[in-house]
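Allow me, if you will, to draw on your knowledge of protein folds for a short while. I have a record of one protein: its chain in single-letter code and its fold written as discrete structure tokens. Could you please explain, in whatever detail you think fit, how the structure tokens follow from the sequence? The record follows directly beneath this note:
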Amino acid sequence: MDNKDTGLEFDQQRIEKLEELRTAGYSLYPPVFERKNTIAGIRERYSVAGHERSEDRITTSGRLFTVRNHGKTIFADLGDQDGKIQLYIRKNDLGAEQFEFFTRYIERGDLIGVSGHVFRTKLGELTIWVDQIELLAKALLSLPEKFHGLTNVEKRYRQRYIDLIVNDQSRETFRTRSRVISLLRSYLTDREFLEFETPVLQPVYGGANARPFTTYHHYLDQSLFLRIAPELYLKRLIVGGFEKVFELARNFRNEDIDTQHNPEFSMVEIYEAYRDYHDMMALTEGIIAHLVYAIHGSYMIPYGVETLDFSPPWRRLSMEEAVHEYTGIDVRSADPVQLGKIAGEQGIEGYEQAESWRECLFLFFEEFVEDKLVQPTFVYDFPVENSPLAKMHRSKEGFTERFELFICGMEIANGFSELNDPLDQLERFRRQDERRKAGDLEAQMLDYDFITALAYGMPPTGGVGLGIDRLVMLLTNHSSIKEVILFPQMKAEQDRIPRGGEDTS
């Protein structure tokens, strides 16, 4: 086979070796291998092994990472998902034919199965004394050079499979991510929350202010949207009588890509009847503190140059308090002309369109405060203009019972006392829809079916959405969301990936 026949850059020498084996009738790519021992299991079982070979045989498998040939003796490193172990291969034990097969056809990167006995070298390294080898899968591409690994950041993201093979830290990051999701699910189910799945393809998008992805269903002859949030469907479940619900959701937002945003991302949304936003703050604090301690064994964890302290209780302050503390400005009573001058000097976008001092408060918060909230901090009581799904504040006119959690300047969670007044919700949807029709690509649609659901009565309810990707960033000490998403969205390589049709969103 010639590389030009594939359009891929295979290692031609490896292709030739594969063809030699095929011609010789060798059984290539066998369908199964009976692995009796994992590398972690071997290490645990023989943790006190001596220098003599064990009497019992072990059989394991994995990828070959290094090969050090010393003539009639070979040392190599075999790895699986749990780690690596050294192999000791002698011509006298393997036999001349198998030894020649190994030296000629098996290379770094190949997947092999081995059998033999365990011992420790004079240097104390646990090693398998191999007497049988089977080739399980021939690698037709060479792994990155062992001392440098895969260091090209873009290639690490585009070809995550290589990154996972050669970078231990990357594998550990995604082990942690898997554990976070498992712990999160257990935390909620242990407290009698029920997990549900709601539609990803939706006829009306809502639950957040974001630009959606649009597609078209030919049989239904209608446009559909990838969900930007599961919120409105989960609240329908509260209307239907379920009182404690959650969903681990994949959401899609047609927005910029940067260190904190990916068009496809993960979050958990949680709703509980007869609770409010104070209860949701307590729940959020409990979940995250539990995860931090379970992963790190401490509430104190490093993040960049910071040491984050997740010991409960966390700091709480209203948005007005936050802006006043970090800017010295009392927006409620400040001179609008002076506020406008400050906004102009700082280049605050959208200030000219602000119709109330509360909207100015929100813009000043985003500009001057968010990035300064390093330790876990709840900011609560948001302007109604920026909170179309939150209940009106019980005592502060023009505000809602909404909070956001910030850590290291990132929004990690967003929660409300949920709006359950159908007439109020209808009016807010109408204002959102007007903004959408006027060109605001992030404004929400008017969801008549959701209003109908509310009209049947939804109990007082607290809800919160928690960003899983950003939380994993914090728990694994990564500053880019691409490091914690297995296959992040990347700009297409012109020579490899078709770009598809025009954007219809």
Q: What stands out?
A: Residues 501-505 have pLDDT under 50 and may be disordered.
